[in-house]
Design a protein that fits this description.
Blueprint: H1 37-51, H2 57-92
Length: 94
Amino acid sequence: MDTPTNAPQPDVPPADNPRPDAESVTPAEAGASAEPGQTGFLAGTLDELRKVVWPSRQQLFSESVAVILMVSLSAFAIAAIDRFYGWANSQVFR
């Protein structure tokens, strides 16, 4: 399929050289931890936890209520459908 000539083209590097700057990337820039082992993992985990934007109490409460309500409604719907099919099954296979 031909794409229109005025459509934006994605920035794709040539296939023969997918990452021309691969040699200049340091392990820290590539996402590898400079500290090996569990201490590096824990330090990275703590760094990521500091970046988390925690919800307010009001937002946490309202979203928790919404989740509990939707789970309850889904469970009720599944139970009602199950009872209906059970009843229909008992009527068909008397």
